[in-house]
Amino acid sequence: MIRTLPQSHIESLNRIEGGYWWFMGRVYWAMRLLKEIEAERETPFQHYADLGCGVGGFAREIRRDFGFSKIALVDGDPRLGDTLGAEEKPFFLYRDLQKKFSLPFTPDLVTCMDVLEHLQDDAFFLREVNANLADNGVFLISVPNHPTFFSYWDKAVGHYRRYDKGGLLRKLSDAGFEVRSLTPMWSFLLPVLFARKMQSQAKDASEAVFPPVPKWLNRLLIGFSHAEFSMKALVPFGTSLVACCVKR
Length: 248
What we know:
With 248 residues, this protein is of the alpha/beta class. The protein has a single domain (7-97, 108-247), classed as Vaccinia Virus protein VP39 (Rossmann fold). Helices cover 35% and strands 17% of the residues. The protein has helices at 7-16, 21-38, 57-65, 122-132, 152-156, 165-174, 190-198, 215-230; strands spanning 47-51, 70-75, 92-94, 109-113, 138-144, 177-185, 240-247. The protein has a seven-stranded mixed sheet with strand order 3-2-1-4-5-7-6, sandwiched between helices. Helix 2 (21-38) packs parallel to helix 3 and helix 2 packs parallel to helix 8. 37% of the residues are buried. The model has no long low-confidence stretch (mean pLDDT 92).
């Protein structure tokens, strides 16, 4: 079973794309990691699929820096196809991500950002990703960190779980991936997890939205995200985990 996003969260995602620190920080980390691993490959990425594409902004940013010849934006919620802009709509595919699925081409790059926690059978999904990926293809995934801090926010946005490094590493390895890097992200946000854990429940569905922040704070948080990437080898914890994998 897939836990779909509440409408309030979908609308919130649409509002934040293009400048909000959470969106910009995640794109920055993904770009840097993908550039690093592409430099190790004999050929550049050609065929790209974003699984759990949401409202399409993440894939749009990734496309700007890579010369993909084929693209698929895939989601298990058909409503999200209607949220995509005119540029992204032709690439949208609805697939039930908790059943066997196929793509119209074999991608050599798959991204899956903050999706796995929405899937009841995450191990099945990871095996399907591996089956669809080209040999030596790259899989980039992010998930929420620290199961202890599962809170009202996770419930509000449809999460089944949060992950720790050891558990995610085992699931990826069992699904047939060689994990090249597994890194905590956003260590400076741990107080937010504490605060959410202290609240027993959200007041209403409007709690499943990204809170507005002043422009100065938004710029500061983007700067923290960039700086943390340069020190990622030294960061022992964070609110998210980002893994870069290769199909074995």
